[in-house]
User: Fold this.
Amino acid sequence: RVNVFESSTCARSRDLRSNTFTRACFYAPDFSSSTAHAHRSNPLHMSTTFTFATTTTRAVAVAPIRSSRARVGASSVVATRAIVSDTVKGEHAEQYAELASLLENYQYSYKVGDKVHGKVVACDQKGALVEIGAKADALVPTSECSLSAVKNAASVFDIDETYEFEIIQDDNGEGMLTLSVRKMELAKAWDRCREAQAEDAALTGEVLSVNRGGLLVECEKLRGFVPQSHIGIRTLNREELIGQQLPFKFIEVDEEKNRLVLSHRLATDMVSAEGLEVGDVVEGMVQAVKPYGAFVDVGGQSGLLHISQISHERIVAVENVLSPGDRIKVLVMSKDSEKGRLSLSTKKLEQNHGDMLRNPAAVFETADEMGRQFREKMQAAEGAVTMSVDEA
Assistant:
């Protein structure tokens, strides 16, 4: 005795509207076209008839079962399970034995923690429905669609596209498997942080908030803490750092305790050691504007562009010339490696006096050439001093 087929009638719609359909697995001997037709039927009827090319098989022992192929959040639907229990003998016995083997191969067995690939068939604010090859669709709740916060699964997934998921629940109470992308992304994020710590590498993160103890930052979509002693930027108002993208190194990476401790100072020391020298022209971003000048981030290290070094012409208010977020090119005037201080200048990069006030774009374009001229003058002056000392 073999189970010949299983059919289900349930609600499903790619555009979230109800649509009834029948899905079945058929196998019948003695038909050349292998064509099978299934009559649509009321799922509450006690039997269903399936007509093959030359054979009509009557289904018996029909019992209602629950099906989960439905719009996200829809009410439960009923499907029918039909089992033919006739004993097969004679010339077709071998074919039915092959059928039994095929059916056994298509018995899917999933467990929590398995990685599966599936096609997204519907999305809304509650999540996404995914075909993974089982008898029923699986559900990806909106909270599990991404490591980032999302309000609608459609912002993460495209309909009819295939993605990888992890099974996090074998039955959500409605006969559906529950899948997650967030859990996989979370594991990958911790792996990247561990690798960066092992390689003593820096990763970029965003400052989310400040408190008396330090900074709360987001790095690789994970929340981490930067102690006050590991903040590499000296500023009177640390709230000015909120929203800034800064490099960080890892002091502690503990996934089990969900603990991530980072250091901006160590990352800044690394950038400093990479070779910023006096006379170098570098591109940076204005971090904060003060009455006495502007703080500029150059490759993760903060430098001071004093008001006297902005232009050859007198400046009444720095905010009239520069604003936070401005991209500018600056010349490194001096460097204090021990204290981690950089003194910067745009004044030395002006081709014409007052360009920073009237034509800052021209200063940006000619900065490299003006920097080269400054270094030549500096080398010539150092050579003259050396000759004077030698003559003396």
